[in-house]
Automatic annotation (TrEMBL):
Function: Na(+)/H(+) antiporter that extrudes sodium in exchange for external protons.
Keyword set includes Oxidoreductase: no
Name of the protein in its database record: Na+/H+ antiporter
Sorted UniProt keywords: Antiport, Cell inner membrane, Cell membrane, Ion transport, Membrane, Sodium, Sodium transport, Transmembrane, Transmembrane helix, Transport
Chain ranges passing through the membrane: 54-71, 83-106, 112-134, 155-176, 182-201, 213-233, 239-260, 272-291, 311-332, 353-379, 391-411
Length: 546
């Protein structure tokens, strides 16, 4: 019962945070962490012990799968060079640079443990990045690089974290063995994601052949897909995170959706949107719930004279160190790309100083870091306590919060003016695609209408075709490049939407009246309301695109 009440309370505050975010003017993740900390701060407040493996299994696969599914695949492929440079090269650079800096700043932390903390801090959090970074203020190219990096660097960071912990436990480290294991974790993780996608497609095929299978069963297969990918990879000792990301990246480009009924597709998209919001919110609230206990147990190594000032200063310096290392690596990679472009006689597209700084500040840490650091063992193989365990847990939690705060406060100011005003290239591309699709539809409809036969049958075909084609022509006019033509089409579209909304309200009122007068039962009323709601959603979607 206590667990059930705890889950309900967390979900209630996730919903509340969605309403409060417009009032407090804070990024949603920061607000949710603050809510979690407030719930756990009193002595009798909410408290929960996180099992790191269960935490990773429940939250990370669906969230990373959703982010990978929504990521622009074309741009990720085009930017694969800088993405891999950050997802792999920057991870190793951070481990070395941050590890030595931490050992110098806090000498009580052994160097191998400092490398472990650096490894678990090296991955940026895909969930936090997408929640913090505003696509309207950050250049699209940088945003795509950040998304791709955060999807891929978890695997490299966590694999190296496990090696560092193993080295601390055994006192030995083999570079050759670590390299082979890293390559195996990556390759097997990718194959596990592909295998899970194949299993899901076969399951949907079987459900389709059975006939009469409910759409909910098909939706459940899609919901289970990231968990299956994660578990397969973890079972064979590979990267479950990379498996979930692979499944998400390939789902949109595979043929799996053709096995889904139309109703199942609609339900899956709607349910996935809700699950993403709930899991995101619960994730950051759980992070906040851990903070009070971590702060209360501030390690004495960090509080020689001042209980709060020295730990806070240490966390700030370490966070700035991470940002500095990231800026240096981005600058080196940018210069290397410019030199390579000039040698290849291609046009160079270097980032400016502010774009590099924005990319450095946007590398926030989150759930992966906390789950990884909490998985540290309590004791070494000889039974002695794991060295500096409380210290590195405190520092990791502090860096998570500090990186989120710095990104939330500084990024809008750094990025202001980086995106030039004008039509978004993505919106222009979507407009061109709509025009092309509408022209193809008009050509096909007119071709069918001309083959409709003779006499009354031909007249009926032409009348229906004219009605449908008129709608497509309005869509083309609304996408016209001429401002005047687009303004007229938009005004006509606005009037049409207004009338359609009025008609839907009248429909809804009539259905309620028939239900009250007992002309229809509640089952019929719900069916009609569902149809009205779906039509209303489609109209709102059209209105939003305009």
């Amino acid at each position: 019962m206590d667990v059930a009440v705890f889950i309900l309370v967390v979900h209630a505050f996730v919903a509340l945070s969605g309403a409060l975010v417009r009032l407090v003017r804070l990024p949603l993740p920061v607000l949710q962490i603050a809510i979690g900390a407030a719930l756990a701060w009193p002595a009798k407040g909410l408290h929960v012990e996180i099992d790191p493996e269960l935490f990773l299994l429940v939250f990370i696969p669906p969230l990373l799968f959703g982010d990978a599914f929504a990521a622009p695949k074309r741009e990720l492929i085009e930017l694969r060079g800088p993405i891999l440079d950050l997802a792999v090269g920057l991870v190793f650079f951070t481990i070395v640079g941050f590890g030595y800096a931490l050992h110098w700043l806090v000498p009580s932390i052994p160097l191998v443990v400092a490398f472990a903390l650096a490894a678990v801090l090296s991955p940026t959090d895909a969930v936090a990045v997408s929640s913090i970074v505003d696509r309207n203020v950050v250049p699209a190219r940088l945003m795509h690089i950040l998304e791709g990096e955060s999807l891929l660097n978890d695997a490299s960071g966590l694999v190296m974290f496990r090696f560092a912990v193993a080295a601390a436990l055994t006192g030995s480290f083999s570079l050759a063995a670590a390299s082979l294991t890293f390559l195996y974790a990556v390759a097997a993780g990718i194959l596990a994601g592909i295998a899970a996608l194949f299993i899901a497609a076969k399951a949907l095929q079987i459900l389709g052949r059975i006939g009469g299978a409910p759409a909910e069963a098909q939706v459940l297969v899609m919901i289970l897909l990231p968990f299956v990918a994660y578990l397969i990879a973890e079972h064979v000792g590979a990267s479950g995170i990379l498996a979930a990301v692979t499944a998400g990246l390939l789902t949109g480009t595979s043929s799996i959706f053709r096995y889904l009924a139309v109703s199942a597709r609609i339900q899956a998209m709607s349910l996935w949107s809700t699950l993403t919001f709930v899991f995101n919110g619960a994730l950051f609230i759980l992070l906040g719930l851990q903070l009070p206990d971590i702060i209360r147990r501030v390690p004495p190594e960090l509080t020689s004279r001042h209980w709060l000032f020295e730990p806070a200063l240490t966390v700030l310096l370490l966070t700035l160190c991470l940002i500095g290392l990231r800026f240096l690596w981005i600058w080196i990679g940018d210069m290397a790309a410019v030199i390579a472009a000039r040698l290849g006689k291609r046009k160079a597209e270097p980032f400016g100083f502010r774009v590099r700084l924005a990319g450095s500040v946007a590398g926030v840490r989150g759930a992966i870091t906390l789950a990884g650091i909490l998985s540290l063992p309590f004791a070494l193989q000889d039974g002695s306590p794991f060295p500096a365990r409380d210290v590195v847990i405190f520092l990791a939690a502090g860096v998570i919060v500090c990186s989120l705060l710095i990104a939330s406060l500084a990024l809008p100011r750094i990025a202001r003016g980086l995106v030039e005003p004008g039509e978004d290239p993505g919106a222009a591309e979507e407009r061109r695609a709509r025009v092309g699709a509408a022209n193809a539809a008009i050509a096909r409809i007119e071709s069918l209408a001309s083959e409709g036969g003779e006499g009354e049958a031909a007249e009926a075909w032409l009348a229906v075709a004219d009605s449908i084609v008129a709608g497509y022509r309005r869509r083309i006019a609304a996408s016209d490049e001429a401002d005047e033509a687009r303004a007229e089409a938009r005004e006509a579209g606005r009037l049409e939407l207004e009338l359609r909304h009025a008609g839907l309200e009248a429909e809804r009122a009539a259905v309620r009246a028939m239900f009250r007068s007992r002309e229809i039962n509640d089952h019929t009323m719900r069916a009609l309301f569902s149809e009205i709601t779906l039509t209303e959603a489609l109209l709102k979607s059209r209105q939003g695109r305009k």
